[in-house]
Amino acid sequence: MTLTPVDDLPERAVRVRAPGKVNLSLRVGGRQADGYHPVSTVFQAVSVYEEVVATAAEDYTVTASGPQSELVPTDGSNLALRAARAVAERAGVDEGVHLHLVKGVPVAGGMAGGSADAAAALVACDALWSTGLSRDELLELAADLGSDVPFSLVGHTAVGQGRGHLLTPALSRGEFHWAFAVQDRGLSTAAVYAAFDELHAGAQDLEDRDVPLMQALLAGDATALGAALHNDLEAAALELDPGLAEPLAIATDAGALGVVVSGSGPTVAALARSRQHALAIAAAFTASGVADRVLTATGPVAGARVVAGE
Ligand SMILES: C[C@](O)(CO)[C@H](O)COP(=O)(O)OP(=O)(O)OC[C@H]1O[C@@H](n2ccc(N)nc2=O)[C@H](O)[C@@H]1O
Ligand SMILES: Nc1ncnc2c1ncn2[C@@H]1O[C@H](COP(=O)(O)OP(=O)(O)OP(=O)(O)O)[C@@H](O)[C@H]1O
Asked: CB of 128 within 8 A of CB of 87?
């Protein structure tokens, strides 16, 4: 098969874009026998993107560019490379691929950057090799790669249950505006869940706690959404990284409608009234020196999709 060359892509190459996420609500139960925690979460995909360019090759290799790309492993542990191998194995493909990752999502930042790479690689390899895997097959491969990978595939807004991998689409009206305080230092997701165990003995009740949040989304009401933001991992992230109290406070002072640690942190997500207000909160983060980098974004946005080379 020869794919039509598009813009600067070589022949037999596919470019895919996948979004990062914010957990608008993340409720966590007690650790299960398999080492994971049952969660009830509401994901929103945001316009902070990873790009993956997959080029036909004999071997499996990966390179990365963009902010913090030096932190991304380029050996077999790379989640995107593992995703490519999973597609090949499932579809019986006997060739390799070179993946180039353009990092836009913070690394180890709680916004699912590695998961977005994996979701993008699944979609890219499926297209590159014309494997024609079904949506359900891709979702199954995604869940095996990581709890957040299925959501990076589907995007928009969804409720996640189980490990976070069982998704139900949720209705959301309009566009929400965000400012993010990004840190160079990452937080290990496993370490944050372990700190959560130390802080919380016994299971939490996960049932029906997000009715006001779902209503806020349905109404497109940013003020109500801001009031409903919630993260059970926030105290654990703050325990491991007490400095995160500063961006949380700065965003509140700057009039954020709500502010929350994103997933397992350390990125802090502030919900703004408008695009202008998001820029003002980002400027407050920068001026006060509480972030190594700032981002502004909107949500919800689509999941992993081919942008060139199909
Ligand atoms: C914090 C969140 O980003 C919220 O969406 C996710 O729960 C984490 O998703 P992820 O990074 O894809 O996590 P995985 O790669 O599946 O798991 C990494 C580690 O996090 C812990 N983990 C993850 C998900 C979960 N429901 N319970 C857990 O205890 C486990 O120690 C696991 O070994
Ligand atoms: N393609 C990848 N990009 C980034 N990190 C990767 C990748 N593959 C494996 N990793 C490893 O996974 C770790 C977590 O990376 P990631 O950027 O996905 O964290 P995260 O955004 O906090 O994840 P989540 O929000 O899903 O918990 C990194 O420290 C890195 O060692």
From this structure: no
State the fold for domain 176-299. Answer: Alpha-Beta Plaits (3.30.70)
CATH of domain 13-169+303-308: 3.30.230.10
What is the complex's ipTM, to 2 decimals?
Answer: 0.96
Domain boundaries, the chain: 13-169+303-308, 176-299
List the beta bridge partners of residue 73: none
Supply 120's token pair.
């993008």
- Same fold flag, 13-169+303-308 and 176-299: no
- The ligand 1 site (C-beta within 6 Å) comprises 23, 26, 35-37, 39, 41, 112, 115, 146-148, 163-164, 189-190, 193, 263-264
Residue bearing the CA closest to ligand 1, atom 26? 163
Q: Please give the Cα distance from 46 to 26 (Å, whole number).
A: 16
Residue closest to 294 by CA, chosen among 187, 178, 177, 155: 178
Alpha-carbon span 125 to 114, nearest angstrom: 16
Average pLDDT over residues 23-48: 96
